[in-house]
Amino acid sequence: MNIFTDLEQWVYPLFIFLFFLLLFGSFHWLFLYIVRLTIRKLPINTDNDIAKAFDHPARLSIGILGLYIMLKVSPLYFITENILVIKGVHTCIIFSMFWIAYNLATSTNGLFVHLLNYLGFKVNYSISNILSAFFRTVLLVLGTAMIISEWGYDINGFIAGLSLGGLAISLAAKDTMSNIFAGMIILADKPFNVGDWVICNNIEGSIEQISFRSTSVRTIEQALVYIPNSLLTTTPIINYTKRNKRRIDITVGVVYNTTRKQLQEIVEKVKASLIKNDDICNEDILVVFNQMNSSSLDIRIICYSHLTDFNAYTYAKEKVNFDIMGILEEVGTSAAYPSTSVYIEKMVSELP
Asked: Cys-Cys link to 312, which of 166, 188, 307, 332 (CB 3.0-4.6 A)?
């Protein structure tokens, strides 16, 4: 009997083929619908990211399994008993599983970012990118090892090869490996985040990106400076963004003909003005007649603004300066400027 002429034996396999073909074509929107029904607490667009991560790997598995099952129940069942076919199917399934995990571990995937937030990591693009690259590398190694093991090869030799290769790479690229580990330390310790304003090794600017090898800083002049991560772990870093207030330190010199009463009035009114100022922290205000300078009577004003943003802080400081100028005008005195008084004991005409 010719197996290709016996159509009845191909009816059931044909239905299986059509079922898997339908599943193959409608998988994305069907799986997306199931995800949206079962997972409601995840952020917006995360369900779509999960569906995209599963889409191509799952289609591959559906296609391979559909073909395998169809052949299994068909007159060509003996093909599925071939050891190479069985190992090939297993390899495709393993490959698809790790492909899904690889897609979920990408830094642009909403589920990956949500999990990082859940684990307590303050997520930004650079940090999630570092973690993503690390996890994807681990997945590639594990997936390759499992596929090699599936085909009967000794996985110990593969691991030993990785060890020797890793040793050779680490010796040849010692500085690079140092920067990578330093990047991990920065990630764990979190001395700064993207957007923070820092000073490190006489470089001042905003953190723009944290990568495996280096951290980029955008300076005031808008130049982009790349600092090796190993340097950041051994150099003191001043992070201005993490402070909760900024200091205002002003010295006002008034003219020497200012009376004691006027000085006391200036000190009292400046202090009262700072207390009323909503931008100033009331608990750390110091206004004192500090010293008698060579050409002025100096009043020292120290206070703190709770505005840490540079522009907002600058405007707050400007307001304090204007208030001080208004108080000087109100009291009836003025700010001093560097000057020298010359006293002549006798005129030239009066000399003998």
From this structure: 307
